[in-house]
Amino acid sequence: MRQVAILGVGQTKIDEQWEKSLREIGGEAAFLALQDAGVDKVDALFVGNMLSPLVDGQNQLGTYFADWIGLWNQEAVKIEAACGSGAAAFRAGLMAVASGELDSALIVGVEKMTDKAGHDVTAALATAADADYEVEQGVSFVGLNALIMRRYMHEFGWQHADFAPFSINAHANAIGNPFARLHDRITVDQFEKSAMIATPINLLDASPIGDGAAAAVIVPAEKVAAIPGRSRVLVAGSSSATDTIAVHSRKDPLFLSAAYESAKKAYAMAGVNPEDINVFELHDAFSIMSALSLEACGFAERGQGVRLGLDNAISLKGRIPICTRGGLKARGHPVGATGMYQIVEVTQQLRHECGATQVVGARIGMAQNIGGSGATILTHVLKVE
Amino acid sequence: MRQVAILGVGQTKIDEQWEKSLREIGGEAAFLALQDAGVDKVDALFVGNMLSPLVDGQNQLGTYFADWIGLWNQEAVKIEAACGSGAAAFRAGLMAVASGELDSALIVGVEKMTDKAGHDVTAALATAADADYEVEQGVSFVGLNALIMRRYMHEFGWQHADFAPFSINAHANAIGNPFARLHDRITVDQFEKSAMIATPINLLDASPIGDGAAAAVIVPAEKVAAIPGRSRVLVAGSSSATDTIAVHSRKDPLFLSAAYESAKKAYAMAGVNPEDINVFELHDAFSIMSALSLEACGFAERGQGVRLGLDNAISLKGRIPICTRGGLKARGHPVGATGMYQIVEVTQQLRHECGATQVVGARIGMAQNIGGSGATILTHVLKVE
Questions:
Q1: Is the distance from CB of A176 to CB of A324 less than 8 angstroms?
Q2: What is the structure's pLDDT at A228?
Q3: How far is B98 from chain A (nearest CA, A)?
Q4: Contact between chains at B77 and A261 (C-beta distance less than 8 A)
């Protein structure tokens, strides 16, 4: 495989963007990434999206966006892996450029999901779970995560308040990120008293949905020199792994085996170990997922991921800074776009463009995107030269 | 890029398979392809599907099928490009194997769409068109093709009956294909008298929907010797191109520019010309699309694709045999699966396994899969060594 570099990135603010269409949201991120890369043309477009057929009545998003942004005649395709769609699209683009078939690719993760509020979106999100054996029983996606969190608390003896640092850290970091949906600090007291959604998951354990798009332009590293004054970010490791789609089919529902497998391969490909990672954008759709990801990726022992929050190891100056731009919890979770927000954020950290939320001296970063309740997990390791 | 070979193929009969779930249909084709390839494991799974979120309430089909067929921990992803999803999944798998990242991949195109009859499926298929500027006006997918066909007849002076040979040829060939949905010969008289759907498209201009799946196992050619007694099929050319998503945005709605572009690149990559193609599985979702594909791919002048049917050039012994296993018209069109049926059929022609519908001496074949009304077009050229 050819070495691939990230030449440009772009993102929109995550919000309820009722005044903008799906086209406009994805197009905005695409144009910003092309502008940042200093190019006006790419060989192909890869779009990550989960919900547009259900929520926007639109399929074929690859061509839809290629048309909108003027990439006529170029290759375009959509990739879907539930909430892991963004990173899955990035990996598909990566393979096509690494193979030598393409000399550049634009990847856009996009989701517009707030125009249909409430039940419709909850039902649409449940299509990530097993329709026959989970959803048919009436469980929602939050409900599945609640079952996992409850079991984790029981097995390892944690209290609900022990998860507070994950949400508090994410909210604190989002204040420094203009693209984040939420910009308010929260306390342990607020965390404990927020509205219950599916016991033990309450409102402040859960990430908010939103409309948004994030994008990147990738090129073969050998063909493009670094832009003067800017560190060049290389895709050093990339891997995707799966678990059973239904949570009940797993031998151990408290271990994200697909996170373990994909991280292991991505570390090996990049020639790094967990202790080399300076910044980690993980998939905190629910606070329990932060703990499980940290454990599966080698940052904590089984059942001890929560301790990293309590020990302040996850903050910007901690041992393993996570959710440095707000994470899913406070940046927001436009599901099919999230994986690309993570790639964009790690890129910005490695370029040292994050202002108040900059991890000082960051040189190696990791992004981990999860589809379903741990069913599809993609891990990317980025490095500056 | 590494040269890639097709090691095994499999397919289910296309039908109203109410007694089988989505899982079972895709799984059946996957197992048949693995069995045909003589392997029980692959590095990754690529699934092509368009409608499962809308019609089956299931997303994340990559992991869903990886789980069902026992590829736990392996990479899996779903690709969607409307009715071009099958070939788009094939091309994504091809890039990943060609890049050196994977040493094998299983690609499955699958669709289960007949359990929800009538309006639901028509509305779901319309998500391939432009939701804002086409579907919002009330036009269906058949309606868009009807407008194109009517304009073609007007511009080039053809009568409706002149399209009959496309449907007659497809029906005749399907009789020799046990996997085809329809097994009845039709006449010009039947063609002319069949029920009108959207003037001038009648029932026998249109392909029937269906439930079905088709699959292939691909590997680097350098790593796998030919299976004794069987020609080894190589993926010699692969390309994908797009046009505007809305038909009204095109300078010339009667020219499939994405077919022209993708065929041109696939020919160049394979080092062949149109006259070298021995068998061509094209995307005859409607009879007008056969004419337009033949023209864009260099088999006929503009407006003269219909003449190839009238001159009997499209039959098994003609200059450019098309729809040799029934085409979309008589094999059936399980939309996200169709591109993989085409790949499987060309493979079987090049292996000389097609019995009564064998194109004698076939050594080079082409498959062309279309998403939307010509919006996303993928062309693959296969060769035997």
A1: no
A2: 77
A3: 6
A4: no
Catalytic residues of A: 83, 333
**A308's tokens:** 């990293």
Contact B148, A74 (CB under 8 A): no
> Do B21 and A257 make contact, defined as CB atoms within 8 angstroms?
no
Burial of A352 (0-12, 13-18, 19+ CB in 10 A): middle
A67 touches B at CB < 8 Å: yes
Nearest to A53 among B44, B54, B243 (CB): B54
Cis amide leading into A200 (omega within 30):
yes
**Tens of pLDDT along B183-221?**
999 999 999 999 999 999 999 999 999 999 999 999 999
Minimum CA–CA partner of B256 in chain A: A73
Q: Is B297 a catalytic residue?
A: no
Chain A CB contacts of B376 below 8 Å: 60, 62-63, 76-77
- What percentage of chain B has pLDDT greater than the value 70? 99
d(C-alpha B295, C-alpha B308), whole Å: 10
Q: Say how many residues make up chain A.
A: 385
> A128: which chain B residues are within 8 Å (Cβ-Cβ)?
59-60
Please tell me what DSSP assigns to residue B249.
G
Contact B56, A132 (CB under 8 A): no
* Structural tokens at position A141: 């996606």
Q: Which of residues 256-275 of A touch B (CB under 8 A)?
A: 257-258, 261
A88 contacts B81? CB cut-off 8 A: no
B95 and A100 in contact by Cβ < 8 A?
Answer: no
Chain A: residue whose CA lies nearest to B81: A60
- Alpha-carbon A332 to chain mean position: 10
DSSP code for B101: S
What pLDDT sits at residue A190? 98
As a whole number of angstroms, the distance between CA A377 and CA A111 comes to: 19
Beta strand A233-242 with A212-220: parallel, antiparallel or unpaired?
Answer: unpaired
Q: Which ranges of chain A have pLDDT less than 70?
A: 117-119
State how far the Cα of A271 lies from the Cα of A292, in Å rounded to an integer.
23
pLDDT digits (tens, 9 = 90+) for B61-113: 999 999 999 998 999 999 999 999 999 999 999 999 999 999 999 999 999 99
Say if strands B196-198 and B376-384 run parallel, antiparallel, or are unpaired: unpaired
pLDDT at B120: 84
Tell me the β-bridge partners of B4. Answer: B220, B235
B241 by DSSP, 3-state: which?
strand
Question: How high is the pLDDT of residue B228?
Answer: 78
Low-confidence ranges of chain B (pLDDT < 70): 117-119
Of B171, B283, B333, B380, which is the active-site residue?
B333
- With contacts defined as CB-CB under 8 Å, which chain A residues touch B66? 242
CB-based contact B92 A77, cutoff 8 Å:
yes
Interface of A with B in 272-311 (CB under 8 A): none
Q: Do B101 and A78 touch (CB under 8 A)?
A: no
Three-class DSSP category at B297: coil
Q: Is A382 exposed, middle or buried (0-12, 13-18, 19+ CB in 10 A)?
A: buried
pLDDT for the residue A117: 57
